[in-house]
Design brief:
Layout (H helix, E strand, L loop, with lengths): L3 E10 L4 E2 L14 E3 L7 E2 L11 E6 L4 E9 L2 E4 L2 H4 L13 E4 L10 E2 L12 E3 L17 E4 L17 H4 L8 E5 L10 E6 L8 H8 L7 E4 L3 E2 L6 E6 L2 E20 L2 E17 L4 H9 L2 E2 L2 H13 L13 H13 L10 H15 L11 E2 L12
Antiparallel strand pairs: 1-17, 2-6, 3-15, 4-13, 5-6, 5-8, 6-7, 7-11, 8-9, 10-11, 12-13, 12-16, 14-18, 16-17, 17-18, 19-20
Helix pairs in contact: 5-7
Length: 395
């Protein structure tokens, strides 16, 4: 007899990135539906007491795909967002990074207000993006905690600095059942006419040791940096900061990235016969714990844009057994992956950055083996960032 089984099938909807029809002088009408609203919809436009956030939170936009996401300042020329806002999910075509712009909420809809990614004019936008993944999996094992990206901008648009990142584990955020300390500020395509929206304080779900908690944790590749929250979200809220109030004002504890769903399916001999309506369990966020080390490396990195130096890096990584792509002097996914392999072998934070520091280290490793000359950059075309350098912890 064939077995017929009803099971719970989990999936993470990584998007709420949105689409809009861009119009000059205004950020246009939404084509979106709400993603996840828990209970009563109590979202509001950003209140007057929080308008300082308009100088630190803004919109990522790519005109060809009409893609809209939220991003927020972490330095004068550096913003954070969700990785899928740039690279989409596995199997989807990534955005044209050279066309992506960031515009602070305080800039309004002024023509030309958007700032491109650093290096875009030279075809080197990818070299100024650091990300947890370029191929996000939304089915188990879901790698939501890799769904983060840091972007260096072509000019320091965040004149009033960035939002502080703080280390708070998901367990700390959910320490008290029912406590509402987390809130979210971002764009919602179905609400607010493309003005910043506040999702009032919500709860963080505790992943305990009971069967339900273990099942949820098992659906994710790494649950240690996963924030399951009930802040209401709408299309384009991907990449928005998850905030708590600190002694100096709002502090970032994570990035909103998606929605965790469970649907019951009827299967027979492993084949899905019927899929029932999905239940929304919680929205998903990635904790700052997942990218703090990479942020610190990004803060001081000098990014190479010279094709000659990129080719030299490709040749060195190929010699070390990490790269098997063309020696074309172009930065792409294969070179990013090879750099991450080398960084892993060196026990360094995995950034994928084509930096002068990495090339110097790579050349030193090769020199030890072959006696080749030490690295010197062939061009002064280097990009550097303004993310505040990490300070020693106060005692």
């Amino acid at each position: 007899m064939a077995a017929v089984l009803t099971t719970a099938s989990p999936v993470c909807a990584a998007g709420p990135y949105g689409q809009a029809t861009a119009q000059e002088g205004d950020t246009a009408k939404a084509l979106l539906q709400p993603i996840a609203v828990f209970g009563a919809d109590d979202r509001t436009l950003l209140p007057a007491r929080m308008t300082q956030l308009e100088d630190k939170i803004g919109m990522l936009y790519e005109p060809r795909s009409r893609s809209v996401c939220t991003a927020f300042c972490i330095g004068e020329d550096t913003v954070a967002t969700a990785a899928h806002c740039l690279f989409r999910t596995r199997g989807e075509r990534p955005l044209q990074l050279a066309n992506v712009t960031f515009r602070l909420s305080s800039m309004g809809g002024r023509r030309g207000a958007g700032v491109k990614i650093a290096g875009a004019a030279q075809g080197a936008a990818e070299q100024n993006v650091i990300t947890g993944t370029t191929s996000l999996s939304t089915k188990p094992p879901i790698d939501a905690t890799r769904d983060w990206a840091l972007i260096r901008l072509a000019s320091p648009v965040c004149k009033k600095g960035g939002l502080p990142l703080v280390r708070r584990t998901p367990a700390e955020l959910s320490a008290i059942d029912g406590e509402r300390t987390l809130y979210q500020v971002g764009y919602h395509g179905d609400f607010g006419k493309w003005r910043l929206t506040l999702s009032p304080p919500c709860t963080v779900r505790r992943l305990g040791r009971n069967a339900g908690g273990r099942m949820i944790a098992g659906d994710f590749a790494d649950a240690s940096a996963l924030i399951l929250h009930t802040c209401d979200t709408g299309g384009a809220s991907s990449g928005s900061p998850l905030l708590v109030d600190g002694p100096r004002g709002p502090e970032v504890v994570g990035i909103n990235v998606g929605t965790y769903l469970q649907s019951h399916v009827l299967t027979q001999d492993g084949e899905v016969l019927h899929r029932y309506r999905s239940d929304t369990v919680a929205n998903t966020g990635v904790s700052t714990l997942a990218f703090m080390e990479q942020r610190d490396s990004f803060a001081v990195a000098e990014v190479i844009t010279s094709r000659q130096d990129i080719r030299r890096m490709q040749r060195g990584l190929a010699s070390a057994g990490h790269y098997d792509g063309p020696l074309d002097g172009l930065y792409g996914p294969a070179l990013r992956a090879a750099i991450e392999k080398f960084e892993g072998a060196e026990r360094r934070p995995r950034t994928g950055l084509a930096s002068t520091a990495l090339l110097r280290r790579l050349e030193a490793v090769i020199a030890e083996r072959t006696g080749s000359p030490a690295y010197e950059p062939t061009s002064d075309r280097l990009e550097t960032g303004s993310v505040p350098r990490p300070q020693p912890a106060r005692r």
